[in-house]
């Protein structure tokens, strides 16, 4: 095994496999799953980097090509060549068929945008009552500073899924089914109190109720990464940026929830 890892081809294969496992399983274990399209982009980038590395030195480049050259021209490698000639088109045909074949799976269940919130939640070791809860930052400190902090938090943590325009069109969005919510839609946060949005951000998909599921939400539980003030600040930014006003506790169900 050691001699293969000392060879440029073996080292390149080891790096590719390690990067694939890290992105596919390592990142998914600590955050959200990485969409297949994004995984492909990263793998192509790593492959380009490896090709640049092996080709910047003539001796290394020659060693890298040697095993492949032997398989292609060495008379003793006829069996290996025959296997490759058969296996390569078969593999391409299988992948193509798997992607285009009709699916008999049940359709994705309808999505409820507004699952019923609990009356209270446990947040970082203490109990928060959601009923009647208002955003404390709206009556504390500078609104401009809170919005700027919320903007920073959003672009560090949320933009990859929910997008630069808050329309659910982030870089990762097409890798999820259903896609992330559009906060621009008047049927989402404009219909909710800020306490409900706090619950959804804090608990994410794992915190959704069992009743009426499956919810199919890839939203991580942000209470593991953000403080209470961080979540309230990003909520302020969401409403301000989307041009909506949150519902208030004295508002009747039939009243308008946004601008």
3D structure, described in words:
By secondary structure, the protein is mostly helical. The chain is built from 9 helices and 2 strands, in the order αααααββαααα. The chain has helices at 2-5, 8-30, 36-55, 58-73, 78-100, 143-157, 159-162, 194-203, 228-242; strands spanning 120-123, 126-129. It has a two-stranded antiparallel sheet with strand order 1-2. It is elongated, with a radius of gyration of 26 Å. The model has no long low-confidence stretch (mean pLDDT 87).
Write out key terms for the chains shown:
single chain, 259 residues, mainly alpha, Cytochrome Bc1 Complex, Chain D, domain 2, 2 domains, two-stranded antiparallel sheet, 9 helices, 3% strand
Strand content: under 5%
CATH class category label of the largest domain:
Mainly Alpha
Reported by name, the CATH topology of the largest domain is: Cytochrome Bc1 Complex, Chain D, domain 2
Largest sheet composition? 2 strands, antiparallel
CATH superfamily of the largest domain: Cytochrome c-like domain
Tell me the structural class: mainly alpha
Q: What's the gyration radius in Å?
A: 26 Å
Number of strands: 2
Ranges with pLDDT <50 over ≥5 residues?
none
Oligomer: single chain
CATH architecture of the largest domain: Orthogonal Bundle
Global shape? elongated
Question: Total domains, how many?
Answer: 2
Number of helices, counting only DSSP H or I runs of 4 residues or more = 9
End-to-end C-alpha gap: 65 Å
Q: Note the run of SSEs as H and E.
A: HHHHHEEHHHH
Strand order of the largest sheet: 1-2
């Amino acid at each position: 095994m050691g001699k293969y890892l000392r060879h440029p081809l073996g080292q390149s294969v080891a790096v590719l496999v390690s990067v694939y496992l890290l992105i596919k399983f390592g990142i998914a274990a600590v955050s959200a799953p990485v969409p297949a399209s994004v995984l492909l982009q990263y793998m192509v980038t790593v492959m380009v980097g490896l090709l640049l590395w092996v080709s910047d030195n003539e001796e290394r480049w020659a060693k890298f090509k040697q095993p492949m050259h032997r398989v292609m021209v060495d008379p003793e490698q006829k069996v290996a060549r025959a296997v490759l000639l058969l296996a390569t088109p078969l593999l391409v045909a299988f992948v193509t068929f798997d992607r285009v074949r009709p699916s008999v799976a049940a359709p994705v269940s309808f999505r409820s945008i507004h699952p019923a919130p609990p009356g209270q939640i446990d947040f970082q070791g203490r109990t928060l009552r959601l009923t009647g809860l208002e955003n404390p930052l709206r009556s504390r400190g500078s609104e401009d500073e809170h919005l700027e902090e919320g903007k920073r938090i959003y672009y560090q943590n949320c933009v990859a899924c929910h997008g630069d325009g808050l329309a659910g069109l982030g870089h990762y969005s097409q890798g999820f089914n259903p896609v992330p919510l559009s906060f621009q839609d008047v049927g989402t946060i404009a219909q909710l109190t800020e306490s409900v949005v706090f619950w959804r951000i804090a608990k994410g998909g794992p915190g959704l109720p069992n009743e009426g599921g499956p919810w199919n939400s890839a939203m991580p539980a942000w209470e593991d990464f953000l403080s209470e003030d961080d979540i309230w600040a990003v909520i302020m930014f969401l409403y301000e940026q989307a041009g909506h006003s949150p519902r208030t506790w004295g508002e009747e169900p039939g009243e308008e929830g946004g601008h």
